[in-house]
Design goal:
Length: 156
């Protein structure tokens, strides 16, 4: 039993130094700190700063995806008004705020020219170009609009 703790055990080929193994662990911990822990702390500081800068009248985005307007602040709790109904006011903890942003409530319309293909009708040599479906659609629309046939013929 004393043999295990004697100086001869350290001199055997299997009993190497602990210094290289500790150096590997130290490098691993330093890399882990710079890759994971430090950026997370920086993001947390920015989030805390944003959450502490909330004032009455700000639009906020909650973690669950809902938008609301802050109407009152009590300690660590915000009174948030949801929707257009002024009587729906819900207390929300400050740490549940994802960001200070106003919802985009504008309606976007689809413009027909934005979704149209890039190729256009070339001109009078339609037989050589070959019409695709979109070209035929354009010809039909123009004929309906003008009420006559032969949209691409030369005018006299």
């Amino acid at each position: 039993m004393l043999f295990l703790f004697s100086a001869d055990a350290a001199a055997t080929p299997g009993g190497g130094s602990l210094l290289p193994m500790l150096a590997v662990y130290a490098v691993f911990i330093v890399v882990l700190y710079f890759i994971m822990i430090r950026p997370q702390r920086r993001r947390q500081k920015e989030t805390d700063k944003m959450q502490n800068s909330i004032s009455i009248g700000n639009w906020v985005l909650l973690n669950n995806g809902m938008y609301g307007k802050v109407v009152n602040i009590v300690n660590d709790c915000l009174m948030v008004e949801f929707g257009t109904n002024k009587s729906v006011i819900i207390p929300v903890r400050r740490d549940q705020i994802l960001g200070i942003t106003e919802p985009d409530l504008t309606q976007k319309t689809v413009d027909e020219t934005a979704i149209a293909p890039k190729d256009e009708l070339v001109g009078e040599d339609l037989e050589e170009d070959g019409l695709d479906d979109y070209d035929k659609y354009l010809i039909e629309q123009e004929e309906k609009k003008n009420g006559k046939k032969g949209v691409f013929k030369k005018k006299n």
